[in-house]
Design a protein that fits this description.
The chain is of the alpha+beta class. The protein has 2 helices and 8 strands. A hairpin with a 2-residue loop joins strand 4 (101-110) and strand 5 (113-120).
């Protein structure tokens, strides 16, 4: 699979995974009132997938389990891990290894999870609802000899 077809496959995966967690416009959020605690810590993992040797980084096993049935790659390595402590309507930014930015903004938090706007500079913009402790994986385009993917996981006390 060539680079551009890998990138298209990763983007298709992003769309399909986002569909599983409920993509919607900001107005599509439930009408329930936001909880008093609007704190939304988010765990962000950036991985590099390629057809090169190297296997799967032990820190990426959970992501590999989600992606290996939908994408073809031989190696997956974690490039960076960050915890971004946000509040509803606060924008957080993570810098990718190629200099582009991932911006995320929790728009709404309730018992079904967090509706979050995500913008991967130059790749994709989407709104996705992620239940607490569930990963949303987003394709972030080509990098070196493969592709980048970003996992975003709300991780707050309930």
């Amino acid at each position: 699979m060539g680079r551009s077809s890998c990138a298209r496959a990763l983007l298709a995966l992003t769309v399909s995974l986002a569909g599983l967690v409920g993509v919607g416009a900001p107005g599509a959020a439930s009408a329930q009132a936001a909880p008093a605690d609007d704190r939304v810590p988010v765990n962000v993992i950036v991985v590099h997938t390629s057809n090169g040797k190297g296997g799967v980084d032990p820190r990426a096993r959970e992501l590999d389990a989600k992606l290996k049935k939908q994408l073809r790659y031989k190696s997956m390595r974690v490039i960076q891990e960050e915890r971004v402590d946000l509040r509803v309507d606060q924008v957080g930014t993570v810098l990718l290894p190629d200099g582009r930015k991932v911006r995320m903004r929790p728009m709404h938090k309730n018992d079904r999870g967090v509706l979050m706007a995500v913008d991967v500079e130059g790749a994709v913009k989407l709104d996705a609802r992620a239940p607490n402790h569930h990963k949303v994986v987003i394709g972030a385009g080509e990098f070196e000899d493969g592709n980048l993917a970003v996992s975003i996981e709300p991780d707050y006390d309930e």
